[in-house]
Amino acid sequence: MSYETKTKTTSLKRELRNSFSTKWVTNSAVVAVAAFAAMMPAPEARAQDDEIHLTIWPGRYTPTRVMATAGGGTKSSAIQGIDPIIAAYEELHPNVTIEVIGQSINADTRRWMITQLTGGVAPDIMWYLGDWAVEDFRKKWLVPINEYLERPNHYIEAGQPGSERWRDLFFPQIEVWKAPNGELYVVLADQIQVGIYYNKDLFAKAGVDGVPKTWEEMMVAAEKINATGGAYGFAATGNNLHQLTWVSGWLTNFFYHPEIGKHDKDGDGVLDKVEMATAVKEGTYSYSDERNRARLEELKRFAGYWQPGALGTDMGAAVRLFVTGRAGMLIVGTWMLPTIREDENRDFDFGIFYLPVVDSATSELIPDGVLPTNKSAGYGSFQYAVTNSAVESGEVEAAIDFLMFATQPDQLNQMILEGGIALPGVHGAPPNPDLEDFKESVTLARAPYQEDDSMFDSVFAEKFLVVTSPYLSGDQSLDETVDRLNAEMDQAADRVLGN
Fold it and tell me: How confident is the model at residue 37 (pLDDT cuts 50, 70, 90)?
């Protein structure tokens, strides 16, 4: 790099830092980002001039050398996680050092992330849920990636997907979490999925013949398991949003299937946060609707097959109930497969089936023939965003370059296979043989309606759990539940629309 170019680049980096640290929302800042991206050489071109230091929080791909609780299973061997990819990148780019930040994924994760991002001390690259990114886009914490996705990925062999346009490397799920401004903020290179783990021995003992294909068949199976007297239909967790909103959202897609066209303003078949918030303010979507009331009643019916005290049970305890043979079914994701498979206390064979379709046998409000959809489209373990910290340090280009390198199928696949919790989300990566049971469901179309925790924002998600819990336990009427949810949803719609 010439002295003149280096001087211009340094000046622009300083100007960019000042611009973003004071007012990232201005058009001039966006122009500055584009100009900076166009001028900046790739990291290897800066090898003799600049030392680059990046930080990354890899989420579930955190190596055990950094955090003992990393990974998805109970294996005693060390988990390498993202370490081999970092080592390969640093070898190729001797001027780059990448530091891994250890932080567990738990109930406090979102709070930790907000604190880091608000204080401007977040890792340069961090694990990020796509719906959180959509919720946060006005806060300017994350770097929009549409422009980068249109660039060639120079690590991909010519003629292969991604070599001319990085976006072409990914499966369509990367497009799911588009913010109201049309931007994407998360690089999604793998896919997780939710399924129903079932105890084959308990199914046989209870006289359940085969895997349930419909919601009604699953409710019958739960009833038969409860009737054995030695186990419960479902091992459930009620002190977090997971199972409750997965099932609630699944029911929404069937009960509200006839209403898609009413709310789908852009005609893409998917109801995003803005469209749902608009429907709330226009009065066309309400918990007072007969469809939502019937859905809540069905959710309560489902909760009737949980173990006693489920509303105060965390996921770990629910998993323990299942692996010790005291529950017939457990609704959880691919990330729990290694734990369940390797648990030494499990003495039964288990299988996995996908959430079953809901039809008119459950409610006359539901038409027959509604197809199942991909429950977890847009979610993964390799779901990384570039943060305001990289903007402040002037290392956005370096962060993007590392993500381009990491999403090569041969680099990504070794990490996915070791983790055992996700399926590839890029073309050219072999499927994970351990997740054969989930292979079909991840290919299904995206669900038109998001779950209650993703339909608006995280504040509403917490309120949904608080409001529905006493209803599910029988301590609150349906009418009171509907009124409380409507009030919370109206406020959530205002927040989504920026009112």
Answer: very low
Distances (CA, A) of 203 to 210, 303, 306: 8, 19, 16
pLDDT of residue 436: 87
Order across the sheet with 350-353: list the strands: 232-234, 327-333, 194-199, 350-353
What is the phi/psi pair of residue 319, to 5°?
-65, -40
Distances in Å between the Cα of 104 and the Cα atoms of 15, 69, 135, 356 are 35, 7, 22, 32
Whole-angstrom Cα distance, residue 464 to residue 445?
A: 26
Structure tokens at 165: 């346009």
Q: Is the pLDDT of residue 135 over 70?
A: yes
User: Assign residue 448 a region: left if phi > 0, alpha if psi is -120 to 50, beta otherwise?
Assistant: alpha
Summarize pLDDT for 339-372 with one digit per residue, the tens. 999 999 999 999 999 999 999 999 999 999 999 9
* Separation CA 158–CA 152 (nearest Å): 10
How would you class 483 by CB atoms within 10 Å of its CB: exposed for 0-12, middle for 13-18, buried for 19 or more? middle
String of b and e for 397-435 (b: at least 16 CB within 10 Å)? Answer: bbbbbbbbbbbbbebbbebbbbbbbbbbbbebbeebebb
Longest dimension (CA), the chain: 80
Q: State the helix-helix crossing angle for 478-497 and 458-472, rounded to 10 degrees.
A: 180
Q: Kindly report, residue by residue over 84-129, the tens digit of the pLDDT.
A: 999 999 999 999 999 999 998 887 899 999 999 999 999 999 999 9
pLDDT for 21: 32
